[in-house]
Amino acid sequence: MKSYHPYIACFLGLFFLAGTLPPSSFFQEEKREIVRITEEIPGPEADSLQEHIMRMHEKAICTLERLLKSYQSRIWMAADSSVEARMAAWNAHPDIPKWMGKLKQAADSVIMIEFSERLLSMHERLVNKEISYEVKSTWLSYCQFTSTNAFVRKGSDSRTIFLCPEWFDKKERQQVATILHELVHTFGFSHPLNTDTPLEAVALAKAHPALAIQSPENYESLAELYVCQEKRKL
């Protein structure tokens, strides 16, 4: 993962003090097509799928911005600049400690930095369209065999999110959260301690916060609370 440390505090502070996130134009350098639909799907249906995937892509960006805004208002700006105060604000957040763990000692403050860095990196990767999506009929048997709805392959396709038919059957907020789950995989993270369900994600956060901030399942569960159509005080 690209690291913003040691200027992460300065970077976050400038935008947090302004009460906003960097505009999309701050990151975006070029516009390009990022959805590939297999040729076996008829043209009109493929166009419809492409439009839907791009709408979920935009919602994923919005979801990260909402989560970052919540982090900003409840942790970064709500406390004084001391490590202890910000750790206390983190632990008092209504959602983050459940999915990312509570901070117990000064050394745990690095978890806050890594978490905010990762959210910013995820946001940048989506806004810059460094992620692509593929709907490919040849992967159907793999989707069925693994009972998965989306996946990322290692190697040359490491920034391609393959969408299975089951993904389209999910509710939109789950589709968005799944995109963010797979996005974490594109940074090279797998499933710490085989964490693969919300219950396991909660247990991981309680026992190993340093692993929770690397867990796709934990980000998915947290993100689902902040998808744009969800009414939630930030």
Q: Would you kindly provide a written description of the structure presented here, covering whatever features stand out?
A:
- It is a single chain.
- This protein is mainly α.
- The chain has twelve helices and four strands.
- It has helices at 8-17, 24-27, 43-76, 83-92, 96-100, 109-127, 140-146, 165-169, 172-185, 198-207, 209-212, 216-223, and strands at 35-37, 132-135, 150-152, 160-163.
- Strands 1-2-4-3 form a four-stranded mixed sheet.
- A hairpin with a 7-residue loop joins β3 (150-152) and β4.
- The longest helix is centred in the N-terminal third of the chain and has 34 residues, at 43-76.
- The radius of gyration is 18 Å and the shape is elongated.
- Mean pLDDT is 84; it is low at 1-18 and 23-30.
